[in-house]
Structures are given as C-alpha cells and as structure tokens.
Records
---
Amino acid sequence: MPALLLTNDDGVHAAGLAALEQALAELGDAYVLAPEREQSACGHALTLHRPLRVDRLGERRFGVNGTPSDCVNLGVLGFLPERPVLVVAGVNHGTNLGDDVTYSGTVSAAMEGTLLGVPSIAVSLAAGGDLAVAAEVARLIALRVLVTGLPPKTLLNVNVPGEPPRGIRLTRLGHRVYTGKIVEQTDPRGRPHYWIGAGEPEWEGLQGTDMGALHEGYVSITPLHLDLTNHRAFDQLADFSRSLDAQYRPATRKRARSE
Ligand code: MN
C-alpha cells in the first residue's frame, strides 16, 4: 500500500487527527507525524536552529517537537520508509478561511507538501461540526486526488461546515475587512500591554468565496496556488520598474569606476 502522511497543528493527540487516520486507513499506509504540542497559527515556520526529536507513539504514529511544516519536511524527505503519495493536514479544530490561511499551521503543512512535490490537502472543521463527517469528506477528496492528481503547485484547502453539509462547492478565498483595533490594557504594575486578533472578523462580499459556501452549509474546496508572483501586475508595474532601473544605473557605474 502507498504511504500517506497525516499531520496537523492541533498536536498529535488531537481528536481530528485520529478521525482522519481512521478514515484514510483504507487508502494506504497512513503515517501520523505531528507536533507533540498544539501549534495553531504558527504559519509556515520551520525549525532550523535546534535539532528535531521524534517520539514513536505507535506503529505508524510519531510526535515531533516542531511545527507542522517540520513534520511534512521530515516525512517527505526521508523519515518514512517510503516517500508519501499524499499529505493530508487536519482535521483542524476550527475553520481556515480567506486571508487567514497564511497564518494557519494546517494550511502551511499542505503548502510544505506541495512545495516538496507531493499532492496535499488541508481539512478544517467549523465549530460545532461533526468530526466523522469531516473525515469522510477528507477520504472522498483524498481518493479523488490520488486518482486524478492536482494541478502544478496547487493544494486544496477544504473547510467543512458546522452542520451536516448540503453539498460541495469550489470556491475562492474570501477577504477580511480590517475594522478591528488593537486592545491596550494596563497590567497590575501600571505597564501597558496589547492584544492583537481580538474581536469578530468581518468579511467582504461572500459570493463565490469559501466563507460564503460555509455560510450556506456547503463544504468549501479552494485550490491554492503557491506561485505568489502577481503575473497581472507586470503591465501595471512595467514603467515603474523601467524608470527605477534608469535612475539606478548611473550610480552603479560610478561605484564600479572608483573601485
Ligand atoms: Mn489548529
């Protein structure tokens, strides 16, 4: 059976990971390689300045003192007996929608798999949702990805609603409206401290977005591309770049002469 790599950012003991492990067992040898502690909102961080330790917790179950991306890096680049054919991150406790995906350890794990050339899926479940339902959705999508593959440099970000899904929709990322403010408070010694990320997020128009699909009770599948170049910006920035280049070149020449 082909090797599958499962990870998450809620930690190796999270119920969402166990549900995923159970649901994907029939598709291959499911290896769990996940952070030993919760790492939510760790983004795409890699641990490069200290060694990583791996604790064996079961036949194919391992806890790592690192991030989700560390786990995928380890798993794809040689820790497992064979290279995995699929990376699945989740089932995350809570949604990963819109502009928030860049903070997400769950989505970043799928980004890491994609960058290393392995088809990857991130799966998240809204509050109040049923883990067994989310794991079954993950199994269906994983099976389809194993059969048909994914477009180059593309991962699937899957969000499952908090109620029984009415169906599955292909969506784009929604965008947050940043109306919130930082919260400043004073500690018992009179020193100020600050909270960020407080308050309820607001979103731009929901039509066609991941947030919109969840709102209407559908599973959202958003294809995310890892080529961050904005190809459409080339036209708009061509003059900008040419004039910068013209401005910059004389200085370069002068320095070259004086050396
Ligand atoms: Mn999480």
Note: Residues 231-259 form one domain.
---
Amino acid sequence: MSTPKFVETIISLGSNIEKERHLPEAIRLLRRHRKIDVRKVSRFFESDPVGGPEDSPEFFNAAVVACTDLSPLELRAELRHIEDVLGRVRTDDKNAPRTIDLDVVYYGDLVVSFDDWQLPDPAASAEPHVAIPIADVAPTWVDPVSGRTAYDMMLGVDAATEAVRPVMSITLAQPYESRGPDEFEHSGDVYAPKLEAIVRAQLLEIGENPDREGLVRTPLRVAKAMDFLTNGYSTSLSEVVNNAVFDAEDADEMVLIKDIEFYSMCEHHMLPFFGKAAVAYIPQGKIIGLSKVARVVDLFARRLQVQERLTNQVADAIEEILDPLGVGVVIEGQHLCMMMRGVQKQDSSTVTSAMRGNFKSEARTRSEFIDLTRG
Ligand code: ZN
C-alpha cells in the first residue's frame, strides 16, 4: 500500500463555524498537499459541542487516513498551516468554536510524548467524536498502546458523553448502523460527495445512465478534474511566489516571458479556453524567477474566468509583487464554447492585453513589447 519511507497516519477533523464549507475544504487542502497522500475519508458526523460556551453550534467531524513522509512535528505544522488558511483563530479556550481543527491522532504505531502533545492522541479512546469517525474510516486500525482495533475502541467509548450521528445529506445515504469491522470496509472511492452527487444528477438529466460501466466512476473523475482545474481559488499569490523575488538594483531592461501555455475555463459555459500568454515588465530593483511567472498565470487561469479578467489579474499580480516601472500582458486564447458551438470560425482566437505603468504611458515601450511577442 505504501513505500517504506511513508507512514500511515490518521488525522481527525472538526469544525463548527460554517462547517458545511470548512470541513470539505479542509479535505480538499489535505488532498492537494504535495506531501500528504489522502487514502480514505470517513463519512461526516455531527456531534454536540462539549464544554464550549453555551449555545455553541454543533460540530461536523471526520477522519482521514493519509500517508506522508513528513515527521510528526512537520505534519502537525502543515495541519496548522491549513487551519490558518481556513481562518482558524486560536484562543486559550480549547472548546471555543472554530472554523477547523486538524489533529494528528495516529502516526503509524508511534507512541511518543511531546511537550503539549501525545501520540496516539488520547482522544481516540475517550471522545466519541474522534473515535467514531476513525472506526468508520479504518475499523481494523490497531491502537499501539492498547492493542485494540479502532472498531473496539469505538464500542468502548462512553457514548453517553456526546451524541454523534452521521450526516446523511452530505454523505449520500448509507445509513449508519453498528456493523462488524469487515462490513465497515468501504471503497474509499468517495472524493467530494456533494459534487459527485451533482454530477450524477447531471448525467441523469441529460438522459444518460450513470450506472453503466463507463460512467460509474465518472462523477469521481469529474470531481477530481474540477478540483484541479479550479485550484487557483485556494492558492494564494504569496504561496506561488514563495521567496522567488530577488533584488536587482541595476536591472532596467525589459524582461519578457512568452509562450506561457495556459488552460482555463470560461465562466459563462464552464468550457475550456486555452492558449498562450506573454508577460513583460521593466524592473525597478526587483525581479522574479522566470518559472514563477508561469505559475502566476496558472494561479489565475485555474478558476472560472473571462479572458479579459485573467489578463488584468496577471498584470496586477506582477505589479503587486515587483512594483516595476511597467507591466504588459498579452493573452491569446481559443474558446471551446465558441469553437464547439459553431458561433465563430474554428480557428479564431481572442487577443487581450493589459498595460500598466510605462507600458501604458509610453508608446515606444508598448510597441517594443508587442514586437517582441511576435518575434
Ligand atoms: Zn464561454
């Protein structure tokens, strides 16, 4: 199942602020992490708040099995980062409402105590909202301290301390009942339950049979593809640029990166448009790694877009990162919504441009740029 250097871990998740949005988003961010390979996700469970302020909202809880080559402390730091991305504000009150809470509960069979943290997390054997999702996702997981399976541990927690129930609407039926560990095994093939249900409904609407062989896994594939094609929404500019801005006091010549391939989706039809971008700037003391410019284009292309806005966003981003004397962006794109629907000639393309600073104010700079993009 995993290469030796990877360790299987179990991560527990909880949210009680906008939980319908934050819990799936946390799972998306985990799946997208380059060093965390999410293997299985439990169903979602709803639990009453315990020990928090009065009238705290209810929680959604879940658990995932993931493989990683991060150390326990590195993994914990990455989870903290995801919590920060999702707007978690830490307070001294461990029961305060939170957008998202991500905890490493098991790290292989490691048993260890850090200053403020233990592995396994004692909550796995004491708290129903932790134990039940873990038993759901990995019933045969063996707790290295007690030697008991997750399923046994779930039966052992004092269920009277909090009510935990599966969330039907989000997990596509599958009534929750106590079953043996063998029957607990589910496919682990659910990626984004809500989105997959929508794609399935869409297949039915167009007269297809979503249960025929070729389509059975289509909702899953579409969800994954959609997630990839729109990952610009959950990536920040600073994450993309990540320390690749360098001082260059004497650089004052135009820097041009052209033939940057991009793939995006039009926001009117959700059909692809794609083509090439050229990005140029005249530095004012700062330059950026060339490959980062292509990543900035991707950051804005991987969303639902119109080509004009994409062009402007790339120009604004370069301006924001480098504060250069000027920026020019030219994008040439072909839109499948036009080509496939026969609205326009198939070989037509759309050209958009955005000019900032001296690319806007000086015709010579602008025409030098345009000439270079053609050359
Ligand atoms: Zn369109």
Note: The CA atoms of residues 33 and 78 lie 9 Å apart.
